[in-house]
Amino acid sequence: MNIAIVGTGYVGLVTGTCFAEMGVNVTCVDVDQKKIDQLLKGEIPIYEPGLEEMVARNYRDGRLHFTTDLVEVLDKVDVVFSAVGTPPDEDGSADLKYVLAVARQFGRHIKKYTILVTKSTVPVGTAAKVKAAIQEELDKRGEQIPFDVASNPEFLKEGTAIKDFMSPDRVVVGAESEKVREVMSRLYRPMLINNFRVIFMDIPSAEMTKYAANSMLATRISFMNDIANLCELVGADVNMVRKGIGTDARIGGKFLYPGCGYGGSCFPKDVKALIKTAEQNGCMMRVLHAVEEVNEAQKEVLVNKLKRHYGDDLKGKQIALWGLAFKPETDDMREATSLVTIRLLREAGCTVRVFDPIAMDECRRRVGDDVEYAKDMYDALLGADALLLLTEWKQFRMPSWGVVKAAMKQPVIIDGRNIYDPAEMAEWGFEYSCIGRK
Description:
Helix content is 43%, strand content 13%. It has helices at residues 10-21, 33-40, 51-60, 71-74, 97-109, 126-141, 161-166, 178-188, 203-234, 238-246, 267-280, 286-298, 301-310, 337-347, 360-367, 401-407, 422-427, and strands at residues 2-6, 25-29, 64-67, 79-82, 114-118, 147-151, 171-174, 198-201, 318-322, 351-355, 372-373, 386-389, 412-415, 431-433. The chain starts with a strand and ends in a 5-residue tail after the last strand. The strands form 3 sheets. It has a 6-stranded parallel beta sheet, with helices on both faces. The protein has a 6-stranded parallel beta sheet with strand order 11-10-9-12-13-14. A two-stranded parallel ribbon has the order 7-8. It is built from 17 helices and 14 strands. The protein folds into 3 domains: 2-201, 3-Layer(aba) Sandwich (Rossmann fold); 211-297, 3-Layer(aba) Sandwich (Rossmann fold), CATH 3.40.50; 299-433, Rossmann fold, CATH 3.40.50. The protein is elongated, with a radius of gyration of 24 Å. Helix 1 packs across helix 3, helix 9 packs across helix 11 (267-280) and helix 9 packs across helix 12.
């Protein structure tokens, strides 16, 4: 089968490469010539474990192609996946200009029956707008070429995206025709050969499923952060509470880990977009408003703990940050807690010295010279009055505590991800604080 993927960002490149790995002939399309030139040289524009090698292998073997021109491949493909960005507008709604631009180009140039599948995360009702845009272009041409639209939201986690795509929990497809069901079943069967888990539904339900899933996960995180903050006040241990409720089969243990706030490209954007969709339909998403408020407040928790330790006047303090990306195994700093933490510390007059295994270049791009950049995790600690841990990279989990203590000016550690043992910290003589534990 021949397919095209429009958009070579995180979703598009992973999707296209994984389909190519399963034997599909894939052309990835992007209007950014620089990005396409990079990909043709074997350089990928994002960080995702294992992806660079997979891109190189499938390009070398002739299953993966790159171009800036969708028109040149349209008459050769059966399916076009639209995986372009849907950045938030100022009011929180998803900006659909790129999605609709792809639809219009599709309508202007298709010559035979082709399916346009929306892979991007889009609000409910987008497929209808896409279909109307295509039909409008066909009407301008005076053509009656058959086509279908479909919704196939992605559920990829940054850091494990290849595994998520190749062995998915489920594949959700919103379809209006039996032909779409047949084609999408054929495309995904290799990934689901042992347990076929394609869930077909109407298109609005598929569009809603993506937002509902991410909003539920965000809700669990904010709920546990609220519980963790209360645990500190009443002397309970949130880890014990988490285990106590996570063993309830009705609740389960996933996404019950408290911390210093969620970030990334999905949860913040999707929660805002779902709230906006509800408002546009005369509905108030009261729970999600609270989820968002809790998360924004939680991003300040580490600086608040630092102020409780040193007092409100932090001017002149040198603070080390371990971790900049919103989660491990990615360089993504979109909506990351580190950005809020850096801003608050700099506003308080602190010197901030940072280290992240992958996201240093991304931090330079976003923050510039507002922080100092360490050459390694221990270099970040030299002369530090406190260490704040924001991202639970594996290399931060078992540091040499003797080296840590010798490097720091003051043995103060504030753990935003609860990865250290308070008893061990006390044995080493650290003044240790974490989330939801004494």
